[in-house]
Amino acid sequence: MTIASANNSITGHGSTGSLYNPTNETRDCMRAVTREDIHAHLLDGNERVVINVAGMKFETCARTLAQFPDTLLGDPARRAQHFDPLRNEYFFDRNRPSFDAILYYYQSGGRLRRPANIPFDLFSEEIRFFELGEETIQRFREDEGYIREEERPLPESELKRQVWLLFEYPESSSAAHLVAILSVVVILVSIFIFCMETLPQFRDHADQEEQFNATEIPSTASFATDPFFLVETLCIVWFSFELVARFLSCPSKTAFFQNIMNSIDVVAIMPYFITLGMELAEQQGNGQQTMSLAILRVIRLVRVFRIFKLSRHSKGLQILGQTLKASMRELGLLIFFLFIGVILFSSAAYFAEVDEPKTYFTSIPHAFWWAVVTMTTVGYGDKVPVTVGGKAVGSLCAIAGVLTIALPVPVIVSNFNYFYHRETDVDDSHSGRAHSPEHSAARMSIVQSLRRSAPSTPVHAPGSMGKSDNTRTHTYVANSFEHQCKPTDV
Question: CATH number of 39-149: 3.90.550.10, 3.40.30.10, 3.40.718.10, 3.30.710.10?
Answer without folding.
Answer: 3.30.710.10
